[in-house]
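User: For my dataset I need records formatted as: sequence, then structure tokens, nothing else. Please produce one.
Assistant:
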Amino acid sequence: MSRGLLLRFENLLQLRGACLQLHVLSSRNVCGAQWKPAHPVGSLLLQPQLWPKHRLTSAALSQCRHLATKEETKKKKKKIPLTRGEVEIRQRMTVEELAQAMGKDIDHVYEALLYTDMNLNSLEPDSILNEDHIKMIVQKSGMKYKSAKLKEEKERKNTDAVKRQVVNCSFWLFLPPADPAVLTPRPPVVTILGHVDHGKTTLLDSLRKTQVASMEAGGITQHIGAFIVHMPSGEKITFLDTPGHAAFSAMRARGTNVTDIVILVVAAEDGVMQQTIESIQHAKNAGVPLILAINKCDKPEADPERVKKELLAHDVVCEEFGGDVQAVNISALKGENLMVLAEATVALAEMLELKADATGLVEGTVIESRKDKGKGPLTTAIIQRGTLRKGCVLVAGKTWAKVRFLFDENGKAMDAASPGIPVEIMGWKESPSAGDEILEVESEQRAQEVVAWRTYVEQQERMKKDLEVIEAKQKEHRVEYEKKQQELAHLTWRQRKAALYKANKHLMFSRPKEKTEMDENTLSLIVKGDVDGSVEAILNILDSYDCEDECKLEIVYFGMGDISENDISLAEAFNGVIFGFSVKANESIKKLADKKGIKIKLHNIIYKLIEDLKDELNSRLPPAVVETTIGEASVLDTFSVTVGKNRVPVAGCRVHKGLLDRKMKFKLIRNRDVIWKGCLSSLKHHKDDVQVIKTGMDCGLSLDKNLEFSIGDEIICYEEKEVQQTTSWDPGF
């Protein structure tokens, strides 16, 4: 009997061991481990003789020990979590980041901010909150805050590229003195400046014996052209032809900053004009010597002497008046005295002894940039130091290039470009801005470092400016908040909070969303231009827009190149208009725009583009209601009549101008103040109801409002007409 009990007890132990093993293996299966039993589980339970003695028990116990050890290790390694209801906060958290840290939605944060001085109208999910507001929101939510450990940001090493040693050398102020042995003569860079339509391009045209002027839209230059002119004597002169139109002031300033000599063109019959004065100022600012070319001297009304005297008022003194400015009377159209002007330019260049170092790393300036469909981003540049060749790695602004091809002004491939030579560069990753300095670097990796550093610096500056604006806004809102608090000072704190919540509650429901639809009174623009300078000129004009109260003007996108499908998508999203300057839109793009109802306005002359823009602004303005007076009458007597149970005041009047038409609107004027506007309830001549009372006739009338008349009141009959408003914006030309 005792033996049977022992066997049964042993079987029970074996069963317990098997159960433990099954438990361990099932937990391993949950964790993803694969286990395949040697025998089916059912057979193990039904046939105790199949259970391996000792081994099974020890395996189960070892698995238990192993499991216990792993659990203990996990407990030891497990980090202590945040206490329930505790939020880890840091400085400069956004609304969205704070909501995520609290495990709440963004609306919860907005609701908590109703009790603060924050302006919810200007708040977005990515708006940065200050530390006080973050702590207050956490506390209002019934939670505790814990400050996160701030990582100390290492000071980033400056990896920018800079020019070689900077000193004053002639008027290229940034060029250092080089070894005289490596200095070689270079062509002078000459910029032609002057008022629009005074003959600048025609002058250059005659010098080059080409038809540049005939190719210009509207006969005016609208971006910088850089050309080499070969003189009969063998000298080369690099000419820059800049626009004279008022819109292109920045281009003219760039032209003078890279030039050695300025030729100021003034029409003999017009004299000194607006852009003439501006051109003189640009030359003075750049410290560049002037040569005066008085053009159109072949015309009968030409008066060169008057031009010279007018220039005296602007400190431009010609040699005949004791100054140092050479003056040459020319006719660019007929080619008169052009060689005299060219010789004067060469003579001045010889006096300046223009030389440059053609060795070492390349330095230059971007004159213009554009996008070509086949070649990609292209730049016109003037090389100022070194010799540019294929394969050079260049940096300009926040982009870089490995030079693939070089072209001259006629589009012919070049092998190299030395100082003073204009060149078109192909190989840019993106288009640099006109006016950016070009620097050669050692490798592509170095170029990427420079671009990364410049991008970083720009981001830091932008963040700094944004922070200043945010702080100024918060200060303004804090003053308003304190003023409101003073007004509510007599209330208890509960009443005060309730009043603030009630006053601000509507803001939570009207807070800004993603703008998919724009107001009717907003004109959204997509601006595309052929070159960077053209886009810059248009944006400078748009910067002068100062009629936001009439119609808001928003620039959604601007860039270079022909109109693309992306531009159509943007215009559709923002209900905008596409303005293109010297660019094209192919047929497929035009059909897509027509299908989606998008306006594409293409122009080749800048003032016509601005006129079209003003017309578009006018179309967005609501019509103005204009009152046209039809007749006037004076109240000579007053009395009243009874209609039913009501007493109705009646005015006895005489029409002294125009006529009174009962269908029109009327107003009552007393002591020059309008005290009523509306319609007549009755108009009678003697006892008859009439429709019209003419000049000199007497009548009785009553208003649609029970209003007492006074003798001497004026009754004005008028008609309201809707008239299209025009914008008061004046772009300056």
